[in-house]
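Dear Dr. H.,

I hope your travels went smoothly. While you were away I took the liberty of generating a structure for the chain from your last submission, since the lab meeting agenda had it listed for discussion. I wanted you to have the full record in hand beforehand rather than looking at slides cold. The sequence, exactly as received, is reproduced here:
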Amino acid sequence: MDNSKIFNRRLLRMRRNRIAARWAGYNFLKVEAAIRLADCLADIARSFPLALELGCHKGELADILGKESTLIQCDIAERMRPHIVCDEELLPFAPDIFDLVASVLSLHHVNDFPGCLIQIQEVLKPDGLFIAILPGANTLIELRQSVTGAAVEQGFALSPRISPFVEVRDAGALMQRTGFALPVINSETITIEYDNALKLMQDLRGMGESNVLIEQFKHFTSRSHIAAVCDYYDTHFANGDGTIKATFEFITVTGWKPHASQQQAAKRGSGKMNLNQIFS
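The corresponding predicted structure, in token form, is as follows:
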């Protein structure tokens, strides 16, 4: 086994294929994120004649953007019916093709995220834009704490159950490290209310977002363990009306493939003002 890999991509594909037929009942987060990404694109005074979407699911972003540009939709799961079935870890495109590469809540299970970003930059034309929304580190923070808290209280063995998500500062560092110009990182938190924690877990399964970590227990989680997690969640994160809250953090990253026409930072030591004129 490759110890550098933490996600089981085969299991991810299987689960996404499994939920494809009923995806419309669980796509609300994808729609919310796609609306936000489309708003970001609307604020950019540029056209993108040929665009690529990685992890299109059932085409939510394409439906929101309309037909102003050609959007090639890719997904790892063939039952989502994308234009092209491909894995984000191995892009099958020639260099310098796309004006835009976009992704909505679909890159958080990539094993080599820096390598994925490098591939994305390669398929972009010079001065092409990459924009993505990723689930941030505060996503499902209540569920994470409940899994840990229930294990401590009940004596259950702890194992990885929820995928690690990206931190804002790490996203910015990765964009710079992989050579994107003018990177911008934004974070937005949304809170969704549920009747109980079990309904949240059911929604996560319906989204295809259940555990795909390689390092996990190989047997089913017992009903008593699930009940303990739900009880902890309902006790510690209940609203006044008895519902519970679930936090989702959307991190929006944008960056451009370098081009000579882009604004450049001034060279060190090129300033014209004498600091003595400022601090008198």
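Two observations you may find useful: The beta strands are 50-54, 70-75, 84-85, 98-104, 124-135, 181-194, 244-256. The mean pLDDT is 89.

With kind regards,
E. W.
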